[in-house]
Amino acid sequence: MEVNSGENTTNWVPIMKKLHMNVFGEKMKKFPKLICRTIWRVGKEDPRRVIHSIKVGLSLTLVSLLYLMEPLFKGFGSSAIWAVMTVVVVLEFTAGATLCKGLNRGLGTVLAGSLAFLIEYVATKTGHIFRAIFIGAALFFIGAIATYMRFFPYIKKNYDYGVVIFLLTFNLITISSYRVDNVLKIAHERFYTIAIGCGICLLMSLLIFPNWSGEDLHNFTAAKFEGLAKSIEACVNEYFTDEEQQKGRENSSDLEDPIYNGYKTVLDSKSFDETLALYASWEPRHSRHCYRFPWQQYVKLGNVLRHFGYTIVALHGCLQTEIQTPRSVRVMFKDPCIRLAGEVTKALKELGDSIRYRRQCSPEILSDHLHEALQDLNNAIKSQPKLFIGSKNNTNKLTLATVVSKGQSGALNSRKVSLSSVKTDTSALLEWKSKLIGRENSKENYERKSLRPTLSKIAITSLEFSEALPFAAFASLLVEIVARLDLVIEEVEELGRIAHFKEYNQDDDHVVNVKLDEKHTMPMQNELPTHAGD
């Protein structure tokens, strides 16, 4: 038997190798198509990426002329490599990021060179031995002080890259001056090449198809409103959909969920907004009226939108709870809920359009329709008081027990159960005790671990909850969304006042609606942190 087993194993080895080779060959055949598809998709998402890549290639070609052309190489020598390094490090996707890093690099280089020459001048007066000691002490103190300054919040936020360049340049010049006599000439050449590299970067960023961080922040903030509006609308519609359609959506992943995608961008936008606002503060005033836009107000508005999004997350959670209100009860409140969600969605889209087109909000942003929808929901809830009040007599207990006996078989096949299908008498406790006695003694540890959640479940199911209680939570979150909408409107109006948005015009609103009807796509959202680097 052992010999046959060895022979069988030996026979399987070439078969498995051949199978792996076939799989590898199929993957290699698909690899070129996958690469081409990825290249096309990345460029299609944001065509500016293609332009930026061409600008970087052109900039590197220009600075390489310092090496390739003989007259230029004789003038700069091997220091021309610093121009190439500057272009690679400084040239960023947006003009604000390039200005931030370019000015930081230039300022750090100038300060480091000036301080290094001062240290060298003092060191030459102390003699050869004390010169080495003085240089070492200067490196220690300057390095420690500059590194400690990087922890200051303001410096870390605005000039961290400049401090790093200062440390690098200062150490290189100071150490080189101890062994090299013409360090002044080397420092001059290095400074000139860095200036050339920064100049080319600024030229490409500001004059040739510039990408403004402020515009990206502006468009990204306007797109958030549309994403939140879609999340609310999809959430309410899904809450009142049929059970078969909802089961089909549950099988799909969260990444394909339109509700999740709508608010995910808003919740994850904190660092994105702060980075864009920082780079936008470095950019020159390039608007028609030369107004300085309050970029920090955009960050403040983003914070308010995130708190607004948390309510939508809770609303989405009502769709995924284990205990659900029966659909026969939900249908009673379908129309007022959908109407209220529609009015909130309409208001959010109007706020997004007002920011996108830099105009004041419509005076009818909080129209009577929103208040009427809210009042209709309130009246609908008041018209069914028995659904929201727990039972106080034994008649309701018998009714619940009857519903349990009828719906128990269907509840076992469904992951989500309604409160009306949960046991409310002591039968669950007796059943649990019988199962506990029948288990083996070797599973005592497992029983101790499962004891607490099982008892908690019994305690919950034994209470006489109203079957409409989960819907009450859903409705209260809808009302909370309306309340938080007022805070969002206040921040948008404050942004329009500080940024000098134009006054609202009914004709402009008509043009905007026509454009939105023709094109139902959201504006592109630039993934700046992936391009901005440090």
Automatic annotation (TrEMBL):
InterPro entries hit by this protein: ALMT
GO cellular component, one term: membrane
Ranges that cross the membrane: 50-68, 80-99, 129-149, 161-179, 191-209
Topology with respect to the bilayer: Multi-pass membrane protein
GO process annotations (BP): malate transport; monoatomic ion transmembrane transport
Keyword set, alphabetical order: Ion channel, Ion transport, Membrane, Transmembrane, Transmembrane helix, Transport
Pfam families: ALMT
Cellular compartments annotated: Membrane
Homology family: Belongs to the aromatic acid exporter (TC 2.A.85) family.
PANTHER family tied to this protein: ALUMINUM-ACTIVATED MALATE TRANSPORTER 10 (PTHR31086)
Protein name, UniProt field: Aluminum-activated malate transporter 12-like
Organism: Anisodus tanguticus
